[in-house]
From TrEMBL:
<comment type="subunit">
    <text>V-ATPase is a heteromultimeric enzyme made up of two complexes: the ATP-hydrolytic V1 complex and the proton translocation V0 complex. The V1 complex consists of three catalytic AB heterodimers that form a heterohexamer, three peripheral stalks each consisting of EG heterodimers, one central rotor including subunits D and F, and the regulatory subunits C and H. The proton translocation complex V0 consists of the proton transport subunit a, a ring of proteolipid subunits c9c'', rotary subunit d, subunits e and f, and two accessory subunits.</text>
</comment>
<dbReference type="InterPro" id="IPR036132">
    <property type="entry name" value="Vac_ATP_synth_c_sf"/>
</dbReference>
<comment type="function">
    <text>Subunit of the V1 complex of vacuolar(H+)-ATPase (V-ATPase), a multisubunit enzyme composed of a peripheral complex (V1) that hydrolyzes ATP and a membrane integral complex (V0) that translocates protons. V-ATPase is responsible for acidifying and maintaining the pH of intracellular compartments and in some cell types, is targeted to the plasma membrane, where it is responsible for acidifying the extracellular environment. Subunit C is necessary for the assembly of the catalytic sector of the enzyme and is likely to have a specific function in its catalytic activity.</text>
</comment>
<keyword id="KW-0406">Ion transport</keyword>
<protein>
    <recommendedName>
        <fullName>V-type proton ATPase subunit C</fullName>
    </recommendedName>
</protein>
<keyword id="KW-0813">Transport</keyword>
<dbReference type="InterPro" id="IPR004907">
    <property type="entry name" value="ATPase_V1-cplx_csu"/>
</dbReference>
<dbReference type="GO" id="GO:0046961">
    <property type="term" value="F:proton-transporting ATPase activity, rotational mechanism"/>
</dbReference>
<dbReference type="GO" id="GO:0000221">
    <property type="term" value="C:vacuolar proton-transporting V-type ATPase, V1 domain"/>
</dbReference>
<dbReference type="Pfam" id="PF03223">
    <property type="entry name" value="V-ATPase_C"/>
</dbReference>
<keyword id="KW-0007">Acetylation</keyword>
<keyword id="KW-0375">Hydrogen ion transport</keyword>
<comment type="similarity">
    <text>Belongs to the V-ATPase C subunit family.</text>
</comment>
<dbReference type="GO" id="GO:0005765">
    <property type="term" value="C:lysosomal membrane"/>
</dbReference>
Amino acid sequence: MTEFWLISAPGEKTCQQTWDKLMVATTRTNNLSTNHKFNIPDLKVGTLDVLVGLSDELAKLDTFVESVVKKVAQYMADVLEDSRDKVQENLLANGVDMVTYITRFQWDMAKYPIKQSLKNISEIVSKQVTQIDNDLKARASAYNNLKGNLQNLERKNAGSLLTRSLADIVKKEDFVLDSEYLVTMLVVVPKTNYADWQKTYETLAEMVVPRSTKQLYEDNESGLFSVTLFRKAVDDFKHKARENKYTVRDFQYNEEEMKADKEEMTRLSTDKKKQFGPLVRWLKVNFSEAFIAWIHIKALRVFVESVLRYGLPVNFQAMLIQPNKKNMKKLREVLYDLYKHLDSSAAVIDASMDIPGLNLSQQEYYPYVYYKIDCNLLDFKV
């Protein structure tokens, strides 16, 4: 289960008592969840006005940072293509997996100095994650272009004989070259029509060189045949071939062009390999940065919301709950009973209920401070 509920409740006589009560209610007898203390340092409170404004700003910042975390994770999965099962082991925060990082959360004093105001700390996060977002767009665009060009070339060299490139199939000796009068055509013949082709190709137009056809290649549906004829008969031959359900491929043997195509393919393939390693490293580092920033935003939101709800002096216990999937509904009820005295008006209102005039901004409201952290960041199950 990768969903966590980050909640806070006011300190009883001590914060330890608040913690003990939660543990008794949710784990001692009924195994509703696994709980961890969530350590938030003594941050600068500032004025009430600033806190109220900051509460809205942090909500927006939370959504933005989460979207960047998901984008980096998803792009990591896209880049790792064939080894998608390895994605999860690359999605680390500070060198440990996401669950370990959250459950052992320690505020990063170096990155987010607590002597700064809450607003400054949120601006540091905003600036940092905006930079990651911009860098990701630039890097992804460059790599996707490269990948797209390579795929287009690969597509040309695959698929049916009707559409694919013939450069890697034919050889110089398959063609009559540098002749003023003769030309070699390449014709795609369905497998079922091989016998007909052999019987009729010489009569499809005047001036077809007898016995000049040769099968050069075969795929699941058709074969590629060469045939030599006089240049002046080409249009007539094409027309008659079409009537007989043969497809004449428009192909001129040009060694230089074919060599250039091969070199381009090699160059793109080499460039992609060269960029792959540094890109994956960048994604790992910046996933870690963005994820750490996201959890610090959650910590800031809990702090601000707890001060706004429970008042000063600062006295609350932040707790990280990992619900047992089967008992989530029961866990909600137990938490409600435990904390309903904090706000008598806060009957459990779920964001999915449409109550006119009540804007919950997609966030459930409970008598305790609550934020969800979902570590399932990818659109597919790895």
